[in-house]
Design brief:
By secondary structure, the chain is an alpha+beta fold. It is built from 13 helices and 23 strands. Strands 3, 7, 8, 9, 10, 11, 12, 13 and 16 form a nine-stranded mixed sheet that branches. Bound molecules: zinc ion.
């Protein structure tokens, strides 16, 4: 892709309303733009990042054997009354009446809809377990939307739901999801913590939260970096596992897994016939990841004073080629040739703009592509080009004809 055709609009300064690092950088790097408070459009760079995260989530979910579906965003209010969550959701749920008088809402989550769906399909223990997931837009009427994609009124989530015949089978699926979540967050370049150590003591139905430490986080946990114990609390005390002092930190929640048990299957009558002929409610689990929020979380952990530093799998591009002067014939030729060769294997962005080198460098650091290839007149006189890593600014000077191999080697 040529920069001149890529609809990238960077900003020198973030709008004053942007409070968190990630929100500022997302606006400055031209990933998103606000439509109204709490509602954002994704521009090409932001959309590429979103797709990369979705692909990681999808790959790891598929590996667990879960089937991808897409549920309706428009939901009948009646289902929420049946499950008993109608009042609980209150004004957070966006509701309206259509012209035929039907009471509808925009789904803030999908436990009710999925339970209804599975209930109408599955009859026998032979058809269980079932794990379904979707990546979908959710809606919440947030009183105070904040921090860009972190607390928004419209956001994208991956939500998975498991249906089992008994607790033992639910345990297996719950564990499978936990492992998949660890893989997903690792691939996203996040150093995360989970309240797994705490799951046992919660009693009743288990749940486990995944979080990343961030200054702009809205939740507080106490945390032990030695054994990774974490618990939602503001009270600092000794770690129950290793008796070290616990540290109070602010975190962003990025995922949550729950053993729901029969909460929804009972209220919505999602039953199956067991091997002995008895009718039983299905045992459910639900597993969420804030997909759009992950963009913010990843930036909160991967930036410096100049901009974003994308982890390799998340970056909108693998390589950014920066010709210092497009008017210089050889610079243009070498850049074009390298672009052509690299594009066969990688996602490449070529900054073909007729801008000063300083501006190109600033924008390059801001949008955070992990590998920059700098091509200039001086270097070419000696037959050399520069390969620069965004994360540590380390420079590798290579012969023009060896550039391709060197870049392949680094990306591998
Ligand atoms: Zn500890």
């Amino acid at each position: 892709m040529f920069w001149s055709e890529s609809f990238i609009y960077t900003l020198k300064e973030a709008p004053e309303a942007a409070e968190s690092v990630s929100h500022k950088l997302m606006l400055r790097a031209g990933l998103i733009r606000m439509l109204v408070a709490g509602v954002y459009s994704y521009l090409p760079l932001g959309f590429k990042v979103l797709k990369n995260i979705e692909n990681i989530v999808r790959e790891e979910m598929d590996k667990t054997g879960a089937c991808e579906i897409l549920l309706a965003a428009l939901q009948p209010e009646e289902l929420w009354i049946k499950s008993g969550r109608d009042e609980q959701m209150g004004e957070t749920m966006i509701r309206f009446t259509d012209r035929k008088g039907r009471k509808l809402c925009l789904g803030p989550t999908h436990e009710e809809v999925i339970t209804e769906l599975v209930k109408n399909q599955v009859r026998s223990y032979r058809e269980l377990p079932v794990i379904l997931y979707q990546i979908q837009t959710k809606y919440r009427d947030e009183l105070r939307p904040r921090f860009g994609l972190m607390r928004a009124c419209e956001f994208i989530m991956k939500d998975a739901y498991s249906f089992d015949i008994d607790e033992a089978s639910l345990d297996k699926n719950y564990k499978k999801m936990f492992i998949a979540y660890e893989k997903i967050f690792k691939r996203c370049g996040l150093s995360f913590i989970s309240t797994k150590a705490d799951c046992g003591v919660m009693g009743g139905d288990e749940s486990c939260e995944f979080m990343v430490e961030a200054l702009s986080g809205e939740d507080k946990v106490i945390y032990c970096s030695d054994c990774n114990f974490a618990q939602a609390s503001t009270e600092t005390k000794k770690c129950p596992n290793c008796k070290k002092d616990l540290k109070g930190i602010t975190v962003i929640e990025i995922g949550h897994i729950f053993k729901l048990g029969t909460k929804y299957s009972k209220s919505l009558e999602a039953n199956f016939t067991d091997a002995d002929g008895t009718i039983k409610p299905m045992i459910m689990g639900c597993y969420g990841i804030g997909v759009s929020r992950l963009i913010a979380a990843i930036i909160e952990q991967n930036y410096d004073k100049d901009g974003i530093i994308w982890p390799r799998e998340i970056s909108p591009y693998d390589v950014l080629i920066i010709p210092l002067n497009m008017a210089h014939r050889q610079t243009k030729e070498v850049s074009g040739e390298l672009y052509k060769n690299l594009s066969a294997k990688f996602n490449v962005l070529l900054d073909d703009r007729d801008e000063r080198a300083g501006i190109k460098f600033k924008d390059a650091d801001l949008i955070g592509v992990p590998l920059k290839v700098v091509i200039g007149e001086k270097g070419l006189e000696n037959g050399k080009i520069e390969i620069v890593k965004r994360r540590d600014n380390s420079v590798l000077l290579v012969d023009v004809d060896k550039a391709m191999a060197a870049i392949k080697d680094i990306i591998k």
